[in-house]
Amino acid sequence: MEFKNEHEFEENQPHSSEKSENTQAEEQFINFSHTKENNSQAVDATFTVESNDYDNRERQEESTESKISMEDSIPPVIEQRSSTKENKKRNVKGFASTLAAGVIGSVLTLAILPYTDYINDHFPKVENQESVSTQQGTQAKPVVAQPTAASSNSIADTVEKISKTIVGIVNFQQQQNNFYGDPNSSQSVESGSGSGVIFQKNNTTAYIVTNNHVVEGASKLEVSLFDGEKATAEVVGTDALTDLAVLKIDAKYVTATADFGDSSTLRPGDQVYAIGNPLGLDLSRTVTQGIVSATNRSIAISTSAGNWDTNVIQTDAAINPGNSGGALINPQGQVIGINSLKISESGVEGLGFAIPSNDLIPIVNQLIKNGKIDRPYLGVGLEDLDQVPQMYWQNLPNNRKGVLVMTIDPNSAAAKAGFQPKDVIVSMNGTEIANSSELRKYLYSKVKTGDNIKFGVYRDGKKITLTAKITNNSGA
What would you report as the CA-atom Rg of the chain, rounded to the nearest whole angstrom? Predict the structure, then answer.
């Protein structure tokens, strides 16, 4: 069935005034039936029009009958009237039949149509149009700021929670006091401060991780907690080479502990937050925001145990003096690094570094267990060649790199192997060694306690081989 537009329906309507009433009535009935077949929505309108026309014709015909009876009209007119009545009866019967058929058709259409695709095919946008119409009839409401709702995913909530685990650490050292002329008198004075993170607690003890350089040389360590409480801390163990230390305080001061995250999942661009006490306790628990600038950076640092290439996370989060030992956290509030150092040269900004959590966890566990790090121990004091006057190694071949032996522990593996001061180590088990950092890297990553290592050594301009059985004492 095809729909026609309104103009097509209008073109089929009669417009001549010369047509008889019977002809108009018949055409109207025909149009009613045709319209009913094509558009069920037009039933009521057509039915009303036809009913009014029928009543008008009935009154007009009654008026005509009255005139004929009064004027005694001629028979041909009576025959015409009789014919008109017969036509009227037939039209009434046709109208009733058409009306009944239309009503039955409408009922069938309304009953069947919802179970077909007819509406969807011909009126696919009815619901959308109604929705648009409703929206257009509603005025837009003024936009207002909503109150900030507390959320477990809020970085403010995360920082508030983790801040309770961040402490300030004050390093007190003994200083000689010769004011009264007594060389034996001394007093404990504050020599520096840093930060720390409470990461574990049991019934009696809470443990804090920080940098070794924060606590090194201290005669007393004072910890300041988030609520203003102060407690004296005790050193559990330190490792100068990795610049890590573990302290402990009474558990009664601690209400929260931090969790470590997996630093191996970090990628450049990840959001991170640094929390610590820059420039002292007056700015305690300062939070700075940044991103991971790079992972697995190797930074050469000088420690009290010697030079070391430290694996670090690079970040542009602001790290300042006093932040050392503080936490570098991810948006979930997990500690993924311990802030340790920054490059503070003129014109340099946003270059901070943190020890990755995956690197510090084994160190922390071993410090708690043993109080020290058991590493393979050679027992020599080393110095890079470029840091020593050439007169001490002038017999070395041109452009030869290596590390100079300065001192020897008399009870060490080096002493037993026959090392002497001024020996220049150039290789270990065939691997060339260019400086002290490379020697320590090889010793701590490739060698196990009890291994026999062959050292290539230059002595008085001649190359010799020395074999040392490595022990497990701390040091290098």
Answer: 50
Element holding 428 (H helix, E strand): strand 424-428
CA–CA gap between residue 400 and residue 389 (Å, rounded)? 15
Answer for the pair 394, 239: CB distance below 8 angstroms, yes or no.
Answer: no
Could you tell me which residues come within 8 angstroms of residue 51 by beta carbon, excluding any fewer than 6 positions away?
Answer: none
Residue type, 328: L
DSSP-derived secondary structure letter, 282: G
Tell whether the torsion through CA atoms of 245, 248, 249 and 255 is positive or negative. Answer: positive
In 345-435, alpha helices (H): 357-370, 413-417
Q: Tell me the C-alpha distance between 36 and 13, whole Å.
A: 15
Give the separation between CA 371 and CA 236, rounded to whole angstroms. Answer: 6
Q: Please, what sign has the CA dihedral across residues 97, 99, 102, 106?
A: negative
Q: Label each residue of 67-123 as H, E or C.
A: HHHHHCCCHHHHHHHHHHHHHHHHHHHHHHHHHHHHHHHHHHHHHHHHHCCHHHHHC
Q: Helix 21-38 to helix 75-112 angle, to the nearest 10 degrees?
A: 10
And the tokens for 403?
Answer: 């590390």
Rounded Cα gap, residues 189 and 222, in angstroms: 12
User: Which residues, 6 or more positions from 442, have their beta carbon under 8 angstroms from its beta carbon?
Assistant: 428, 431, 433
CB-based contact 326:278 (threshold 8 Å) = no
* Cβ-contact 220, 176 below 8 angstroms: no
**Residue 3, Ramachandran bin (φ over 0: left; ψ between -120 and 50: alpha; else beta):** beta
Token code pair at residue 424: 């220049």
Sort strands 286-303 and 306-315 into parallel, antiparallel or unpaired.
Answer: antiparallel
Q: Which two tokens stand for residue 25?
A: 């009535």
pLDDT tens-digit series, residues 141-174: 333 234 434 445 688 989 999 999 999 999 999 8
Catalytic residues: 213, 243, 324
Which H or E element spans position 341? strand 335-342
pLDDT more than 70, % of the chain: 65
Structure tokens at 195: 């930060």
The dihedral sign for the CA sequence 17, 19, 20, 25: negative
Using pLDDT thresholds of 50, 70 and 90, give the confidence band for residue 473.
Answer: low
Residues forming a β-bridge with 383: 404
State the CB neighbour count (10 A cutoff) for residue 399.
Answer: 5
Residue 338 φ then ψ, to 5°: -110, 115
Residue type, 25: A
Q: pLDDT tens-digit profile of 203-222?
A: 999 999 999 999 999 999 99
Give the integer Cα–Cα distance in Å for 209 and 245: 6
The secondary structure of residue 72, as a DSSP letter, is T
**Rounded to whole angstroms, how far apart are CA atoms 308 and 299?**
8
